[in-house]
Write a structure and sequence with these properties.
Distance between the termini: 79 Å
Largest sheet: 8 strands, mixed
Radius of gyration: 27 Å
CATH class of the largest domain: Alpha Beta
Helix content: 40-55%
CATH superfamily of the largest domain: Periplasmic binding protein-like II
Amino acid sequence: MKNKWRNIVGIIAFVVLTSVIIFTVQGRNKTVTLELGIFAGSNWDVPNPENYKMFDEIISKFEKAYPGIKVTYRSGTLKEDYSEWLAQKIINGKQPDVFVVLSSDFNTFSSIGVMKDLNKLIENDQDFDREKLYTNALKSGQFRGHQYALPLEVVPVLMFANRTLLRNEGIEVPKGDWTWEDFYDICQRVTKDTDGDGKIDQFGTYGFTWQHAVYTNGQNLFDANGTTAYFEPSEVLESINFIKKLNELNQNFKPTSDDFDLGKVAFRPFPFSTYRAYKPYPLRVKKYSSFEWEGIKMPKGPNGNNAAELYSFLIGMSSITNNEKEAWELIKYLTTDESIQLSIFGYSHGVSALKNVNESDEAGEILLRDNPDEETVINMDMLEEVIENSIVIPSFEKYEEAMSMADKELFQVINGDKNAETSLSIIQREIEKFLIQ
């Protein structure tokens, strides 16, 4: 009897062991499929036919490095349709495991729980080093102190200087840490009626807004959580008055984007992606062929730096993914692998969020390759400084509405007779009341 039970137990043990081995082998051989949410074209709204090619190459490299993971994506979704497509996926509970996040969607997705909080994944991963990324780039993916997305690439705002116009006026292109005072002086010298018809037709600047003035004067307008507004500090008043002073140079004649395109404006703020897209041939011929131009730092205010807003192209993880580990490996690979980040210079018009990549000789060589016949190529040391000193716009649910409220009131101040100090006090009270509702 004992032998019989011994045999039965032995058979059961053998079956269990065999089953464990089979399931283990099957588990090892099982391929996890991740869906990646991306769109066609450029995040920076400049021509970029290479977007899918870049992701195809990245995915191919990733799948070789992680043979148990397959990555798929839906092609053909345009940027202007991407938010709606993603919203439908979210409503149906079928959002991609990993997806790029438009800046206009980040606050909403973070606040309603669509994206996974990455803090624990970052803290528990010894291979992830925050110090390798620009601090401001990381901040751009944070919501109320939590990291919901990581930067694929970043783009700082630079000032575009019309070298041809300045040279014709006997003025050198500003270099280094130039100031509002320098900026105003040059704008004053170049603003004029060039054809004698009594109308100003050459301008100092187009597109330098009150927000640019506030940021270059070292001031942010909200705290990180969006609970407090800062419209009453003297730096903000100083910024608004400076914009009024600049506008008065034009004597009620307002420059347009066409004026800049035709070479009639000395300065215009632009994202660095525009510089990269339109500086080389052939897009330069299509857009800005009538004058030479280059990207320089923004002019700094009395209390600020030579930098403005930093734009980031972010990628996050679905909060309901069944493949958290694999999804994290993909996000980490896209954002921290140096060879992948270097490919951004070749395929996109932004720059890497990794310090080592931007400091590399390879990155400089790619920028030089874009402009082989140009005397002036963007100095990467200058670009890094601009990124480090940039302003990261706080992420909170009511940001867009709050800024719209401020913009409407300040339009009347800048273009009318309203008292700036009084208006800023009113804006402060109204926005703080709105934020706590």
